[in-house]
């Protein structure tokens, strides 16, 4: 039997994660992603490989989604599989509609593509989704068991453990082995695994300390705003924006900076609300402080005091209608509409988390209720009031991801246009990351030509995006399309703040789990090959790095089942640990020395060797204790012993004490204890016991023999030339080697003694 | 004081926190899991599984809750024994005593089909569809209407109820009613943990009922108190003497505070204040002896409303539930004997009473040993001629994991490949042994039955070539004496071929 692993996406590339694993007849799809760098069919996994006829229902047991990254897990495709058991974690489920809606808008509006799914589709799809809690063990069906483990990375990210029968595997999705400011490091149990499928985005990178990275980031941002520049931080992954924001918030307070920080992405704003609600999924540190202060209530963004506020700012927090007020010179925006937030005065920073002030108000129309016609309405409104050209469609599409109120949209847009070209320094978080389009591109176009400005790229950028071009050598101009060229004079700063694990993290995880096989996905081909070789060399675990549409077959653990008798369980319950070195030395193996050197405390517990497996025709295999076997057989035990009685030259030992002073019996004990001392020093690795009348090592016993014609004395010519003491030895057959070793030492006493 | 805060803290450090359906393994052999019971947020039933038996513990459970996650009874399916300890029926048993025919009629109402596949679903629906929820909603609605009446008459309402789920629901519905009646009455929650509780209940979607979870997905707060707090209609204070409270205190008002016994906490002060006011209202839980509880406050002009909330499985649902769970044994409190256990059930019913140990027979067959395939192929088999059976001595590493005995390939060095057999049986025939030895080039002669008085009959085989050795054979023992290692080894081999060994 084997585990079959078909890589549909993220094989030797980054993005489009999708792996279909077949374990003992169960077929599980892990993740269902798309590639941001392509516009053609390569953007999606080739689903025809799962089922040519498109009957995915029959072909898949369940789909497991580990997390959201790059705003696009291809739900349009997932929608075809509606009858599945789709498994993801609560936060992921909570964030899913946001992400999907946003993705849908980008696809439809920006790229002008045919609408692949509607909001209703998304909702229908989510109804089929089963959300799981961390470590909750879900019994998908009788045989398939799935469990989520904490993965760090982004909110809601999980590693998934799947077990069918006795075969088990872990699919990591993306994970992070170093805790960041708001999410902890990945945590997983030590599991018996046949297969580990791990991401390998940073297969060869070992990142420096978190602290140094943070300082570098803060310094560059500070330097830029000190010179009056604008900082653009295109963020993508949920969570990155939040982490950087907590960081900046702290730093601003410490340095007493007054430069405003803007949080533009509606997506991130709404996500922030979920973060607050799902705070128990974030790291312990954040959790501990929650009772007193929610870390996601950014200091100047907390408007819980504002009654019935749709949108507000610190100064105006008492006015409940400021967002619609045309007079407000710079109006902060409605958190619930998820559009834009800003400061009303230059001295304050407003962050996005004011959803607290608006969730639940009646004005709020949830994003899920919005019909697909509303974006059109918004768009026309927008153009009417602003007379904008078609290019702005992009602009809207990005903003409208979670827009709910018409009037706010207008306010946002007007406000926002003024923000982009407003004088003075500022920091802006904008979606999408990688500057692959949308609002971040819009801002980039405006800010890139100025040397004082800074673009900070947190995290990985997929080939084909502007972010990638900026990172791979500083270009002076970027061609957007035939007609548009962007002058790039601004500073570029790359931040390895990506929530992916680095090489050390991957190695740590593989070492910790010690699976039988490792498959690497979601990485760059040459780096993956290096990592694969490293895993093989350092950990001795076979690794694979299949390309897309390749299948890897690995063998999985199988077990033979046998009934276990009570007696054997009883004996197994009382362990008879022995130090392994004892046994090894008895075996006289040269290897034993090496083992002793490496692990001197290794224990050996061989109680299982008292078990006998019996297998008869047409009956189930049974394991019994060896004593029970005889009862079953109706036979009696035949003891087989070996014995030998031989003389030992003890003349050298009697020098200290005169034999006359001792009575006969004591003398014998004395001889035996002298022998004990000698043997113990000669064979320190053996556990020799002095039992008074005899010495014992394992089953070997030696005692002074007083008989004149001991039947075990088989020497042809008894030696009478020296003062000989006869020792009678017996041992069981299995300790043969040990026995003869001890005997040879005893016999050599006389010769070697000084 | 019996214990200090430090004691509590050190005690809590030993507590392992579990999520629903998370496996906790004790000692590798016992797996413990918790499943939602529906009674309160975070309350649970337990399953304990070991290789020998699975036991499910059913505490007070509610099939469908308005706040907490529903009673997950499906998770208890497949248990060998169900330990039924929902004692919520104890209080109301007196009322049921007279209606003993109750069960038969309920059973037929639920139209239980036997032994058909869909019968479970039918019963399941019956468990959920009953009027429990609407009954509970009616109770709440009644309390709220009484409260609104009191407030309208200028009185205050005091709610010393301990059950969090009820409090949260009352908060929500009360605020709605007040709003629709256009009453601007403040609601106070006075407790040392009030603020924490309000914050906490809004960040635990995974412990809540489906309806509340839906709120998470549509971006709404899980409970309405978030909004109430923001609108300054709901205020939380740690104590009745909090400065903030004194500043904004106004009457009439609605106060939620501990303790239901009316002997501890803010309730004492407030009750003293309002007990002479005929317009004020006290809402109490059932289970308290109202007469006794109110004694210190007499004479009472204040109205008191005592309400019993659903706090467990209704007796008429026990049978259908057990039908779904189909355990071999049901262990239940003795006083329920008359109400549990129909004659035509496949389960055995055992009643327990206090301070008594009950032994539950084990119907399970032998536990299984899972021998890894790699290891199984390495075993050396011996065929037993007369029994048509093959036997092999086990080796490897015995591991107990998640209640399973696994035999895995162990440390290679620890298993020496050519160990001598540990066990011999069968009869030793000296002539055959001699023949076997002769094949090896060993010569000797047999000396039969030297029988000493009183001692065992022993036969001896003398070896004289290649060197001197002696094999002594008694009824159940054989002793090989040789002073030459290789000769001893050869003889051992010969003995192994004559005797059965493993």
Automatic annotation (TrEMBL), chain A:
Broad class of where this protein is predominantly found: nucleus
MF terms (GO), sorted A to Z: hydrolase activity; RNA endonuclease activity
Record bears the keyword Heme: no
GO biological process, one term: snRNA processing
Gene Ontology terms: cellular component: nucleus
Keyword Nucleus: yes
Entry-linked SMART domains: Beta-Casp
SUPFAM superfamilies linked to this entry: Metallo-hydrolase/oxidoreductase (SSF56281)
Compartment annotation: Nucleus
Domain Beta-Casp per the UniProt entry, residue ranges: 241-470
Keywords: Hydrolase, Nucleus
Family as reported in the entry's similarity comment: Belongs to the metallo-beta-lactamase superfamily. RNA-metabolizing metallo-beta-lactamase-like family. INTS11 subfamily.
Name of this protein: Beta-Casp domain-containing protein
From TrEMBL, chain B:
Organism encoding this protein: Escallonia rubra
GO cellular component, one term: integrator complex
Domain called Beta-Casp: residue spans: 167-292
Organism superkingdom: Eukaryota
Record-linked SUPFAM superfamilies: Metallo-hydrolase/oxidoreductase
Gene Ontology process terms (BP): snRNA 3'-end processing
Keywords of this entry: Cytoplasm, Nucleus
Subcellular location(s) per record: Cytoplasm; Nucleus
UniProt keyword Hydrolase present: no
Classification via InterPro entries: Beta_Casp (IPR022712), Integrator_9su (IPR027074), RibonucZ/Hydroxyglut_hydro (IPR036866)
UniProt entry tagged with the keyword Cytoplasm: yes
Designated name of the protein: Beta-Casp domain-containing protein
UniProt xrefs under PANTHER family: INTEGRATOR COMPLEX SUBUNIT 9
Gene3D superfamilies (UniProt xref): 3.40.50.10890, Ribonuclease Z/Hydroxyacylglutathione hydrolase-like
């Amino acid at each position: 039997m084997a585990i079959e692993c078909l890589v549909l996406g993220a094989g030797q590339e980054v993005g489009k994660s999708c792996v279909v694993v077949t374990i003992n007849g169960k077929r599980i799809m892990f993740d269902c992603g798309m590639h941001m760098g392509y516009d053609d069919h390569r953007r999606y996994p080739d689903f025809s490989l799962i089922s040519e006829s498109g009957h995915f229902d029959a072909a898949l047991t369940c789909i497991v989604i580990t997390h959201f990254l790059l705003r696009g897990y291809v739900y349009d495709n997932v929608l075809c599989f509606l009858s599945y058991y789709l498994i993801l974690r609560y936060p992921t489920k909570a964030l899913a509609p946001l992400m999907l809606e946003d993705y849908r808008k980008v696809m439809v509006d920006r790229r002008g593509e045919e609408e692949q799914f509607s909001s209703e589709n998304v909702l229908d799809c989510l109804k089929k989704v089963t959300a799981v809690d961390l470590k909750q063990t879900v019994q998908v069906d009788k045989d398939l068991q799935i469990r989520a483990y904490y993965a760090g990375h982004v909110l809601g990210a999980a590693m998934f453990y799947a077990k069918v029968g006795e075969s088990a595997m872990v699919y990591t999705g993306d994970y992070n082995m170093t805790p960041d400011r708001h999410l902890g490091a990945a945590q997983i149990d030590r599991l018996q695994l046949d297969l580990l499928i791990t991401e390998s985005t940073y297969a060869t990178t070992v990142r420096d300390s978190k602290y140094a990275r943070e300082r570098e980031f803060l310094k560059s941002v500070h330097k830029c705003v000190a010179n009056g520049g604008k900082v653009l931080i295109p963020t993508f992954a949920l969570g990155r924006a939040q982490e950087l924001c907590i960081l900046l918030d702290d730093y601003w307070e410490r340095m007493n900076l007054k430069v405003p920080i803007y949080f533009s992405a509606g997506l991130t704003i709404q996500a922030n609300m979920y973060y607050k609600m799902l705070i128990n999924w974030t790291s312990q540190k954040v959790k501990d402080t929650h009772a007193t202060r929610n870390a996601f209530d950014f200091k100047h963004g907390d408007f819980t005091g504002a009654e019935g506020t749709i949108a507000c700012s610190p100064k105006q927090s008492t006015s409940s209608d400021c967002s619609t007020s045309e007079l407000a010179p710079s109006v902060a925006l409605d958190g619930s509409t998820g559009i834009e937030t800003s400061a009303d005065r230059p001295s304050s920073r407003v962050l996005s988390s004011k959803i607290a002030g608006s969730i639940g108000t009646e004005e709020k129309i949830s994003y899920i209720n919005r019909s697909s016609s509303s974006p059109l309405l918004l768009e026309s409104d927008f153009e009417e009031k602003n007379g904008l050209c078609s290019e702005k469609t992009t602009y809207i599409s990005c903003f409208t991801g979670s827009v709910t109120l018409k009037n706010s949209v207008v306010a946002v847009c007007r406000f926002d246009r003024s923000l982009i070209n407003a004088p003075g320094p500022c920091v802006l978080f904008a979606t999408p990351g990688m500057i692959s389009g949308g609002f971040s591109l819009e801002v980039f176009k405006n800010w890139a030509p100025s040397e004082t400005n800074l673009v900070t790229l947190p995290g990985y950028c997929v080939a084909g995006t502007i972010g990638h071009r900026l990172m791979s050598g500083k270009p002076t101009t970027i061609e957007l399309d035939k007609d548009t060229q962007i002058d790039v004079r601004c500073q570029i700063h790359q931040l390895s703040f990506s929530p992916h694990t680095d090489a050390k993290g991957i190695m740590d995880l593989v070492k910790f789990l010690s699976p039988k096989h490792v498959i690497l996905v979601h990485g760059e081909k040459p780096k993956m090959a290096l990592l694969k070789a490293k895993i093989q060399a350092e950990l001795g675990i076979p690794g694979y790095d299949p390309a897309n549409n390749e299948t890897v077959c690995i063998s999985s653990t199988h077990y033979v089942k046998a009934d276990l008798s009570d007696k054997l369980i009883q004996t197994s319950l009382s362990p008879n640990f022995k130090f392994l070195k004892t046994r090894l030395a008895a075996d006289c193996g040269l290897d034993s020395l090496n083992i002793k050197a490496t692990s001197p405390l290794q224990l050996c517990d061989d109680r299982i060797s008292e078990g006998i497996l019996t297998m008869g025709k047409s009956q189930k295999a049974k394991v019994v204790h060896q004593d029970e076997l005889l009862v079953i057989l109706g036979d009696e035990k035949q003891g087989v012993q070996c014995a030998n009685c031989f003389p030992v030259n003890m003349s050298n030992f009697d020098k200290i004490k005169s034999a006359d002073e001792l009575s006969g019996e004591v003398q014998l004990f004395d001889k035996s204890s002298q022998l004990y001392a000698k043997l113990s020093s000669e064979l320190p690795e053996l556990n020799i016991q002095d039992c008074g009348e005899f010495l014992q090592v394992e089953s070997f016993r030696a005692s002074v023999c007083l008989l004149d014609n001991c039947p075990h004395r088989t020497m042809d010519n008894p030696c009478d030339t020296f003062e000989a003491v006869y020792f009678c030895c017996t041992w069981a057959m299995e300790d043969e080697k040990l026995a003869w070793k001890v005997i040879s030492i005893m016999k050599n006493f006389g010769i070697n003694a000084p | 004081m019996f214990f200090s805060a430090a004691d509590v803290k050190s005690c809590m450090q030993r507590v392992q926190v579990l999520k629903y359906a998370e496996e906790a393994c004790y000692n590798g052999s016992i797996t413990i899991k918790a499943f939602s019971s529906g009674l309160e947020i975070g309350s649970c039933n337990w399953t304990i599984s070991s290789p020998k038996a699975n036991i499910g513990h059913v505490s007070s459970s509610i099939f469908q809750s308005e706040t907490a996650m529903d009673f997950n009874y499906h998770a208890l399916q497949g248990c060998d024994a169900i330990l039924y300890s929902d004692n919520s029926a104890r209080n109301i048993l007196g009322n049921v005593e007279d209606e003993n025919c109750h069960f038969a009629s309920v059973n037929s109402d639920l139209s239980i089909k036997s032994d058909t596949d869909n019968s479970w679903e039918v019963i399941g629906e019956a468990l959920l569809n009953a009027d429990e929820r609407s009954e509970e909603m009616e109770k709440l609605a009644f309390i709220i209407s009484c409260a609104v009446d009191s407030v309208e008459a200028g009185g205050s309402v005091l709610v010393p109820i301990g059950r969090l789920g009820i409090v949260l629901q009352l908060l929500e519905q009360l605020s709605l009613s007040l709003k629709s009646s256009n009453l601007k009455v403040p609601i106070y929650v006075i407790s040392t943990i009030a603020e924490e509780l309000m914050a906490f209940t809004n960040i635990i979607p995974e412990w809540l009922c489906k309806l509340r979870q839906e709120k998470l997905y549509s971006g709404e707060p899980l409970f309405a108190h978030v909004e109430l707090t923001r609108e300054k209609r709901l205020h939380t204070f740690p104590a009745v003497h909090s400065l903030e409270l004194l500043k904004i205190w106004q009457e009439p008002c609605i106060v939620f505070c501990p303790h239901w016994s009316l002997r501890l906490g803010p309730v004492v002060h407030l009750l003293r204040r309002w007990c002479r006011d005929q317009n004020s209202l006290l809402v109490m839980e059932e289970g308290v002896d109202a007469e006794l509880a109110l004694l210190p406050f007499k004479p009472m002009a204040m109205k008191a409303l005592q309400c019993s909330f659903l706090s467990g499985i209704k007796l008429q649902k026990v049978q259908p539930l057990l039908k779904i769970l189909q355990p071999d044994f049901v262990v239940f409190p003795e006083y329920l004997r008359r109400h549990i256990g129909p004659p035509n059930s496949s389960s055995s019913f055992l009643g327990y009473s206090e301070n008594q140990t009950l032994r539950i027979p084990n119907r399970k067959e032998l536990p299984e040993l899972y021998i890894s395939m790699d290891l199984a192929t390495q075993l050396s088999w011996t065929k037993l001629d007369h029994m048509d059976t093959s036997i092999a001595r086990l080796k490897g590493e015995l591991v107990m994991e998640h209640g399973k005995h696994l035999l895995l390939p162990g440390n290679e060095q620890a298993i020496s490949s050519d160990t001598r057999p540990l066990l011999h049986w069968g009869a030793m025939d000296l002539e055959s042994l001699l023949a076997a030895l002769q094949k090896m080039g060993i010569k000797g002669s047999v000396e039969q039955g030297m029988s000493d008085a009183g001692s065992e009959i022993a036969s001896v085989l003398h070896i004289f070539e290649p060197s001197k050795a002696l094999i002594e054979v008694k009824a159940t023992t054989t002793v090989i004496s040789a002073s030459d290692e290789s000769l001893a080894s050869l003889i051992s081999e010969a003995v192994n071929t004559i005797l059965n060994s493993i």
